[in-house]
């Protein structure tokens, strides 16, 4: 579609409107980046620690359960001065304690801080729906610039593919391998670079480019 819009020829009110819009969008994106940095981290290791599956393997769970049982049996065997009646009561008490210990171990093994699939699905759909509108706005502004069509096509494609790759990589970290955290960093960085490029290009055409005669 051919457009006749030229940012350099817009009236002052339109320039202020678009400038404010771009600045607010950029500020919102930076706030999202800072939020991610503070709540999760920006390096692959931090992302893997937050999103990866941290549940114990069957072997680890069995080893912990066995160790806990041995410790209870050993501490009970040290009670040599207990009478027969007291020992009967102690056995009952220890039986209850062993049961409670087993429950604690089970809770510990199931109560890790691994993100449940429902939370990850919620994060994915919220970010995909909200960011799609944001990318549409930024991509639309880029399409109205005086850049070559090939450059605009590449940047817009990178913008949307990087967001999609960012969300997909988080799911891959959770369900496949923590190594996909590097893909998350790469995709997030690409989105940020596209945002910065579009912002500076639009502002440059609005205020610095000389109108063509």
Brief summary:
By secondary structure, this protein is mainly α. 77% of the residues lie in helices and 0% in strands.
Q: Can you describe this structure?
A:
- There is one protein chain.
- The protein is mostly helical and 213 residues long.
- The chain has 2 domains: 10-54 and 115-207, no CATH class; 58-110, no CATH class.
- 77% of the residues lie in helices and 0% in strands.
- α6 (149-175) packs antiparallel against α7.
- Mean pLDDT is 82; it is low at 69-79, 81-85 and 89-110.
Low confidence ranges: 69-79, 81-85, 89-110
Helix proportion range: over 70%
* Beta-strand content bin: under 5%
Compute the number of helices: 7
Number of strands: 0
User: What is the general shape?
Assistant: elongated
Summarize the main sheet.
Answer: none
Count of separate structural domains = 2
How many angstroms separate the termini? 23 Å
Which sequence of SSEs, written as H and E, runs from N to C? HHHHHHH
Structural class, from helix and strand content? Answer: mainly alpha
The average pLDDT score comes to 82
CA gyration radius, whole angstroms: 29 Å
């Amino acid at each position: 579609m051919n457009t006749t819009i030229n940012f350099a020829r817009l009236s002052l009110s339109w320039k202020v409107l678009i400038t404010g819009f771009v600045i607010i969008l950029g500020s919102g994106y930076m706030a999202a980046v800072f939020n991610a940095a503070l709540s999760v981290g920006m390096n692959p290791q931090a992302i893997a620690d937050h999103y990866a599956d941290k549940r114990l393997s069957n072997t680890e769970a069995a080893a912990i359960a066995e160790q806990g049982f041995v410790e209870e049996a050993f501490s009970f065997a040290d009670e040599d001065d207990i009478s027969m009646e007291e020992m009967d009561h102690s056995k009952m008490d220890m039986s209850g304690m062993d049961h409670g210990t087993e429950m604690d171990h089970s809770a510990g093994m199931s109560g890790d801080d691994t993100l449940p699939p429902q939370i990850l699905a919620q994060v994915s759909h919220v970010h995909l729906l909200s960011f799609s509108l944001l990318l549409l706005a930024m991509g639309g502004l880029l399409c109205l610039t005086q850049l070559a069509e090939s450059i605009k096509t590449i940047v817009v494609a990178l913008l949307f593919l990087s967001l999609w790759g960012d969300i997909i990589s988080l799911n891959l970290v959770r369900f496949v391998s923590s190594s996909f955290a590097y893909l998350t960093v790469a995709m997030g960085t690409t989105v940020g670079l596209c945002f910065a490029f579009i912002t500076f290009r639009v502002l440059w055409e609005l205020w610095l480019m000389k109108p063509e005669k």
